[in-house]
């Protein structure tokens, strides 16, 4: 694996992050509850251009924590090409999830939680802060979204954000 890279400008980091959000499958989800502490799991996800959509068992620790404390952190699974997302989670029981969001999730993964017997909770996270960096040389300037606004958008950013699902 390549460990050195050229420092990217903010617009390039935004473009690269949006591309990864569109193409990757797994994301680490960190939740917490005051009496139980932190909890972290990997889940499949889908980016709709504005939010990350995931699905978990309706009685899971993640679902319980999201209901009690909606602040979450998400991370794409690469320790060299880091993408960290902070936001607030909104839960949708499978019967109440917007149909376009659920269908897009099912299309991406070939699995539709709405057809399962057990309860499932779709979790939508709209990013408030995004940090992205590759290596130590990019630690400075790693915040690429603040208060829900991309700091600089490259040409790819607009095209991906134009295809939202399940607002």
From TrEMBL:
<protein>
    <submittedName>
        <fullName>Pyridoxamine 5'-phosphate oxidase family protein</fullName>
    </submittedName>
</protein>
<dbReference type="Pfam" id="PF01243">
    <property type="entry name" value="PNPOx_N"/>
</dbReference>
<dbReference type="InterPro" id="IPR011576">
    <property type="entry name" value="Pyridox_Oxase_N"/>
</dbReference>
<feature type="domain" description="Pyridoxamine 5'-phosphate oxidase N-terminal">
    <location>
        <begin position="21"/>
        <end position="133"/>
    </location>
</feature>
<dbReference type="InterPro" id="IPR012349">
    <property type="entry name" value="Split_barrel_FMN-bd"/>
</dbReference>
């Amino acid at each position: 694996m390549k460990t050195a890279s050229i420092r990217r400008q903010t617009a390039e980091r935004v473009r690269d992050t949006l591309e990864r959000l569109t193409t990757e499958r797994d994301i680490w989800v960190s939740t917490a509850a005051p009496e139980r502490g932190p909890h972290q799991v990997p889940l499949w996800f889908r980016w709709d251009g504005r939010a990350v959509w995931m699905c978990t068992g309706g009685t899971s620790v993640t679902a319980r924590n999201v209901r009690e404390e909606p602040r979450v952190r998400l991370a794409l699974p690469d320790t060299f090409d880091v993408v960290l997302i902070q936001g607030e989670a909104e839960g949708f029981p499978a019967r109440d999830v917007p149909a376009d969001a659920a269908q897009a999730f099912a299309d991406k993964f070939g699995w539709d939680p709405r057809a399962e017997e057990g309860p499932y909770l779709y979790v939508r996270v709209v990013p408030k802060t995004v940090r992205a960096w590759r290596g130590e040389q990019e630690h400075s300037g790693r915040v690429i979204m603040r208060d829900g606004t991309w700091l600089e958008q490259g040409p790819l950013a607009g095209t991906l954000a134009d295809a939202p699902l399940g607002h």
